[in-house]
């Protein structure tokens, strides 16, 4: 029994050490804010500026369209 209690205390300590409760609460809040977009396949590309890494320079998205493949990554990785 004491091994189980010690394991539980260790798991709770590690969870708080890595700030897991804050991330879990943040994900729950994001889930309520998320919405389905209205872009469809074949829709024109939105006119937005993108920021290049690592310079942070803003350029129109359309200026990046060439005869080479273009990969855009959307999302939050925090």
Walk me through the topology:
Layout: H1 2-17, H2 20-33, E1 49-51, E2 58-60
Antiparallel strand pairs: 1-2
Description:
The model has no long low-confidence stretch (mean pLDDT 78). This protein is mainly α and 78 residues long. Strand 1 (49-51) and strand 2 (58-60) form a beta hairpin. The protein has a two-stranded antiparallel sheet. The chain contains 2 helices and 2 strands. It is 38% helix and 8% strand.
For the structure shown, list the relevant keywords.
2 strands, single chain, 2 helices, two-stranded antiparallel sheet, mainly alpha, 78 residues
Summarize the structure.
The chain is mainly alpha-helical and 78 residues long. It contains two helices and two strands.
Main sheet summary = 2 strands, antiparallel
Give me the secondary-structure category: mainly alpha
Provide the low-confidence segments as ranges: none
Helix content: 25-40%
**DSSP summary: helix tally:** 2
Q: Strand arrangement, largest sheet? A: 1-2
Beta percentage is: 5-15%
Average pLDDT, to the nearest integer? 78
Radius of gyration: 21 Å
Cα distance spanning the termini = 38 Å
Strand segment count: 2
Specify the overall morphology. elongated
Order of helices and strands: HHEE
């Amino acid at each position: 029994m004491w091994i189980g209690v010690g394991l539980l205390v260790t798991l709770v300590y590690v969870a708080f050490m890595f700030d897991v409760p804050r991330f879990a609460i943040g994900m729950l809040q994001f889930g309520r804010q998320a919405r389905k977009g209205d872009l469809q396949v074949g829709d024109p590309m939105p006119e937005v500026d993108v920021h290049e890494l690592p310079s942070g320079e803003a350029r129109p998205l359309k200026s990046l369209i060439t005869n080479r493949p273009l990969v855009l990554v959307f999302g939050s990785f925090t």
